Amino acid sequence: MKPRIAVVTGANKGMGRAVSEKLASQNYHVVMVGRNESALKKTAIELIEKKYSVETFTADISQKEDCEKLIEHIDKKHGRLDVLINNAGIFIDESKECSDLAFKDDVMKQTMETNAMAPYRLMKGLIPLMRKNGYGRVVNVSSGLGSFEGAASYCLSYSVSKATLNMLTKLFASEVDGIKIKVNAICPGWVQTDMGGKGAPRTIEQGISGMFWAATLDETGPNGGFFRDGSPIDW
Questions:
Q1: Of the candidates 37, 85, 96, 148, which lies 20 to 30 Å from 78 by C-alpha distance?
Q2: Which domains, ranges and CATH numbers included, belong to the chain?
Q3: CB within 8 Å of 184: residues ≥ 6 apart
């Protein structure tokens, strides 16, 4: 039996690295995607030394051209895809920018390109390979800050980008409903990553538990939901 193929963005560190390793330990071939080529390759070598099946693809997914190159690479090299984890994301809001809603347009634009447009482009380009394969799992790493209940003005651009990602999750899920492809959003919580900081209450292993769950759902699993640790949360 051929190993399932997974694409993980933001894979050279933090939750992306951890979920890549966890999938690889379960006989997935993982295409690890990241901007920092040297860090990405170093991470891949560490996993290969553990006898895991991984490869790297250097890309800045905030750039449309890089997304297109990644899609073309997966199509030409593998011709199919089983799992897409849209993990890469940025949080560049500064609280002082949001006082009196005095946020910067360039912060919004950069955040939206990475956190929403990149997942949109990758889903648009890679879900057809899942259709061809007759199987697929898409995991969009969102945030409670992107929910209407959890929105906060101190991270305006981040909240808007994750709310957009949640809507994209719903729309793509509706397009694949009933054809053995599942598209879900998950909130990992506040995790001890470079973005979350050392003071965050959740470990990386706790953070990726929901990502791995959504990536490995069986046929009875949900489609088009928003979850934390496998349990539904409010949009």
A1: 37
A2: 4-232 (3.40.50.720)
A3: 138, 139, 140, 169, 173, 214, 217, 222, 223, 224, 225, 226, 227
